[in-house]
Amino acid sequence: MIDHADDLASVQAATERLLHAIGTLDNAAVTQSSRLPGWTLGHVLTHLARNADALVNVLEGRPMYASAEARDADIEAGAARPLDEQLADVRDSAERFRAAAGVPADWSRTVALRNGVTDRAERVPFRRWIEVELHHVDLGIGYELEDLPADFTERETEFLAARFSGHPDVPATTLSAADGRTWTTGGGADGSPVTVEGTPADLLGWLAGRRDGGALTVKGGDLPKLPPL
Fold this sequence. Notes:
By secondary structure, the protein is an alpha+beta fold. The protein contains seven helices and six strands, in the order ααααββααβββαβ. The strands form two sheets. A four-stranded mixed β-sheet has the order 4-3-5-6. It is globular, with a radius of gyration of 18 Å. It starts with a helix and ends in a 10-residue tail after the last strand. The relative contact order is 0.13.
């Protein structure tokens, strides 16, 4: 059961954690490499701000981005800005998203995202929550997958398991967390079913492309190679 209002509160809390962490950095930090190949911390922060504005577009019925090229150009153009500008941009864009999501609306309506993807409006706050939490980890400034809220980790694992369900390159896979929770995914590729076991953080890290799966235990075959998100 999706509660968009509860998700919006979670987005706000995650954003405050992010803003507090950014506020402890210095100007030199924005040019340092993040955990995302080819991106500095400034790229990640600019992307977070532009994503908030893009989701405002989604909620208000406009294209998420003018084009893929414009999206990339905006991120590149903003990446080298001083820390105070980055901080203000992340804060102000987050507020614009909060305001747009606070307008009374039909949350059951279908909205258009990127690359032909559609979803229900009520899931947009959760998608923003994903962006804030995972990119906070991507900054590499002390916030790790193990620090993510437990309810977020569970929902994002379920979300990604559903995303890869039936994928033609992923064999039938059961995900088994150390706390006893399980999910199923894949099933579109040939091969025997496998079971992948690990901590909730390691399972999510593998599914989200943030960890290589080396800490996971695989039974019944090899660790599946997941397609890029």
